[in-house]
Amino acid sequence: QVQLVESGGGSVQAGGSLRLSCAASGRLFSAFGIATMGWYRQAPGKQRDMVATITSGGSTLYAESVKGRFTISRDNAKNTATLQMDSLKPEDTAVYYCNAVRALDYNVFWGQGTQVTVSS
After folding, report:
1. Cα 20 to Cα 39: distance, rounded to the nearest angstrom
2. What CA–CA distance (Å, rounded) separates 103 from 53?
3. Is the pLDDT assigned to residue 8 strictly greater than 80?
4. Mean pLDDT of the residues in the chain
5. Among 60, 58, 52, which Cα is nearest to 97's?
6. CA-based nearest residue to 21, from 42, 33, 6
7. Which residues of the chain form beta strands (DSSP E)?
8. What is the pLDDT of residue 94?
9. How far apart are the first and last CA of the chain?
10. Rounded Cα distance, 35 and 33, in Å
């Protein structure tokens, strides 16, 4: 199994910034590692949606709603991923989940989630 531990959530006023971090550990099979790491979010009563993803080669994908405001990065050597969130809006309020796809078998793993609350 792979464990993902998130940190950095919290409460902030609109226009502020937060930085989320995710650290992966466990059966990563270092010769293969993690293919893709990403962040997803789920607001109350809504489905879980992709926010941003990044491949081991550094290719990124962002939801339209966060383009230009959020930046995803990763450290392959440390198996960590970071989401820098700037110019936060109340609609960014959600539980944010870290996601990792193991390269060996493309199994998907999730973190426990961290709450982000943006007040107007």
Report:
1. 9
2. 15
3. yes
4. 94
5. 52
6. 6
7. 2-7, 10-13, 18-26, 34-42, 49-55, 60-62, 70-75, 80-85, 94-102, 108-110, 114-119
8. 98
9. 40
10. 7
